[in-house]
Amino acid sequence: MEIMGQHVNQLSVDRVDWIDYAKGICIVWVVTLYATNFVQEQTDSIGWMQHAVNFARPFRMPDLFLLSGLFVGRVIRRPWRIYVDSKVLHFFYFYALWVSLKFVNQAGTGLFGADAASLLPDYLALYIQPPSGPLWFIYMLALFFVIVRLLRSVPKIFVMSAAIALEVPDIVTGIKIIDKFADYFVFFYTGYVFAPYVFRAAKWAESHLRSAGLILLLWFAANAALVEYGFSFQPGIELLMGYAGASAVMLLATLLCGVSWMSWLRYLGKNSIVVYLGFVVPLGLMRRFIANPALNIDTGFLSLGVTIASILGAVLLYWVIRKTPLSFMYVRPEWLSFAKRRSFNIEEQPEGAV
Predict the structure, then answer these.
(1) Could you tell me if residue 353 is inside a domain?
(2) Global pTM value
């Protein structure tokens, strides 16, 4: 662990750009998934964007979890109070806030009726079983940070072996926490354990751009073929494709660091939780527009347009309210920080955050 800590500290400056680009890439794919599914449900048709969604499936969430685990080694020895404050309460706050907003929106006037009290069990159940939609990722991040800390004294080879054993069989119980844990804990833990090698690979890619580009092209072809012919769901192959895809995103992020006109992607990555939490708002507001039977737009292009609008809408929402009393939607109040630290602004996320 001392060696790992030294590597991370030494390379922490270099990691910022490519990690932000990598998170930006992943968050765009996340919005693409939900926007495309939403459009296709509303129009009752399948568009060409479904191919893009399928292509990203093997690496979209594995890479986000792996990136989130990269800096655990830097903080895991901190006192529990500080660790929980920055790595657990940070995410729990945003989960509790946004899941409450979602619940209020769905319950509507029922919250003010005579049977309002009967809704309480349904609300409390959201802290055991995350609702449909993207909030499950925030929930699982907080849980993963706790579990990794609890398992700190367990030999890493044992934990890693158990994590792989859970992922390979493609466990499906119908209980979201169990299923998501089995699917993605291995990637989060991989980021924690193999952080020095990830940073070394990024450094290598910075000085070997042509080789990195060639590897990226080969991965693109292999990933597309495996997805097209249905191999991406096969036990074992799914795990390998997750690792390969996460590596490819890292290489692509490294290449993009030198492309000035792609800096918007770095901004999205730096503020990825803004997009992750907020894109559902503009997406929901577009429901009537999308479902309009008079609308004559190709489903694929409509999905692409809605994806872009959802991302821009999320960023715009943040910019509109960040200096208003509603800023608590993106800033954890200082009184909720029991480590006596200043409040976390979205633009100053703890390392390893979304």
Answers:
(1) no
(2) 0.88
Mean pLDDT by 10 residues, the chain (354 residues): 35 62 96 96 94 96 95 91 90 94 81 75 90 92 96 96 93 90 97 95 92 96 96 92 96 92 93 93 92 87 97 96 92 78 44 50
Q: How far apart, in whole angstroms, are the C-alpha atoms of residue 232 and residue 319? A: 39
Count the residues in the chain: 354
Question: Which candidate, 142, 122, 141, places its Cα nearest to that of 131?
Answer: 122
Q: What pLDDT, on the 0 to 100 scale, is given for residue 351?
A: 46
Q: What crossing angle do the helices spanning 195-207 and 237-256 adopt, rounded to 10°?
A: 50
- Judge whether 84 lies within some domain: yes
331 three-state secondary structure: strand
How many domains are there within the chain? Answer: 1
Q: Reduced to 3 states, what is the DSSP secondary structure of residue 19?
A: helix
Inter-helix orientation angle 176-193/156-167, to 10°: 140
Q: Which domain holds residue 219?
A: 2-348
What is the pLDDT at residue 194? 96
Backbone angles phi, psi at 239, to 5 degrees: -65, -45
Position 117 scores a pLDDT of: 77
Q: Let me know: does 74 contact 8? Beta carbons within 8 Å.
A: yes
- Assigned domain for 131 exists: yes
CB-based contacts of 259: which residues, under 8 Å, 6+ apart? none
Does 354 reside within a domain? Answer: no
User: What is the residue-wise DSSP string for 37-81?
Assistant: HHHHHHHT---THHHHHHHHTTTHHHHHHHHHHTTHHHHTTS-HH
